[in-house]
Amino acid sequence: MEEERGVDVGRLGKLEDWKVGKARFWERIEDWKNLSDVAD
């Protein structure tokens, strides 16, 4: 059981990393959109 619990924790950690990465990705897109608007 302990091993399975460790795997679950690992999955949660990866999910959190994915959420953070996705948030940063969208922030970059918003910044890029803002720069594009300024360029126009």
Would you kindly provide a written description of the structure presented here, covering whatever features stand out?
This protein has 40 residues and is mainly alpha-helical. 95% of the residues lie in helices and 0% in strands. The protein contains one helix and no strands. It has one helix spanning 2-39.
Defining traits:
40 residues; mainly alpha; 95% helix
Helical/strand content category: mainly alpha
Strand content: under 5%
Low-confidence stretches: none
Largest sheet: none
Q: What is the H/E order? A: H
Average of the residue pLDDT scores: 84
- Gyration radius, in Å: 17 Å
Topology:
Blueprint: H1 2-39
Describe the structure concisely for a colleague:
With 40 residues, the protein is an all-alpha fold. It has one helix at 2-39. It has one helix and no strands.
